[in-house]
Design goal:
Blueprint (H helix, E strand, L loop, with lengths): L5 E2 L10 H7 L1 H4 L10 H21 L6 E4 L2 H16 L5 E5 L4 H12 L3 E5 L9 H7 L4 E5 L13 H10 L3 E5 L18 E5 L10 E5 L14 H4 L7 H39 L3 E3 L10 E6 L4 H10 L2 E2 L15 H5 L4 H4 L2 E5 L6 H20 L2 H9 L2
Parallel strand pairs: 1-11, 3-4, 3-5, 5-6, 6-7
Antiparallel strand pairs: 2-8, 7-8, 9-10, 10-12
Amino acid sequence: MDKKFIYLDHAATTAARPEVVEAMLPYFTEQFGNPSSVYGFAAGNKKVITDVREMIAKSLNGNTQDIYFTAGGTESDNWALKAAAEAYGAKGNHIITTKIEHHAILHTCEYLEKKGFEITYVDVDEYGVVKLDQLKAAIRPETILISVMFANNEIGSIQPIAEIGAIAKEHGIIFHTDAVQAYGQVPIDVQAMNIDMLSASGHKLNGPKGIGFLYIKKGLKLRSLIHGGAQERKRRAGTENVTGIVGLGKAIEIAMATMEERTAKEVKMRNYLIDRILSEIPYARLNGHRTNRLPNNVNISFQFIEGESLLIMLDMKGICASSGSACTSGSLDPSHVLLAIGLPHEIAHGSLRLTLGDENTMEEMDYVVEELKAIVQRLRDMSPLYEDFVKKNR
């Protein structure tokens, strides 16, 4: 009998859909022309890129000329922050973000601090939602940029993006959102939400890795992050990743067409998983808001255990999960997101993130809960802290 394999780490990456791979294949071997070339063989690839750009713009209610292809979410985040700082540095040197951003934002902010910019890191509440009163209070005459993620990659909390966009617009401040986890999972309207820049990545929505985009609203004076040729309307040099762009386009086409049905299924599985875990495993707590969260995100902290041991034992049972961001999985420090919502170190260390996908089933959820119950109990039986706790509470 084959070993069971249940993938519950879709926030880290997703498998490219068969339709995506099929759409990409001809662009590796047959339609391989460089879109910048003048002959007819390459002109078709230029049109394909334009078609995908149009599709992305439509999905966001934006303009086609405002979509720029990048290598993924991290590049898009870097470009948005560094280019805005460079372009508007003469106006001011102050940037506002939050304490729970992805490290692509936080580390870029650290870089900008070394360049003389001042960064305010706004707090979030116990559910991981940004404190709007604190954000408003942080605004200064020299504030040039607000960057707040659309939804958190660890605990799934969705931010009040429309309200933040309105605040930024009222004060004449550029508003960027890292929508890597949200794009394809929740509806996004850049015009209604007053979003000036938005980052997204292909491999989070069953597209290929190494491709993403940055939406830059017309009128922003942003320069290139990568210099060289005149590609992407002279804003992002380098021969276009045609195969990646085609794959991204197909993945987006499917994600938008299936969003309502797919996310309804994910919400049903998510709620079932949360309810069973919280009711059947004692000393467990849900991180993030119960309902105002990404459709596929479950993040639970278990007292008296180490998250790393939990992940290893789940893996032995064929279950792929994580304790937080895949980008920091090598770190021994507890999640900065969990600390920001007020969890003490010892509880933050015992966290588990399960992120669901369309291919997961209710039967898999049952299997995961049963294995989780046994593993958590086994780890607690080995914990002197748990033993002391039980003795004191007899």
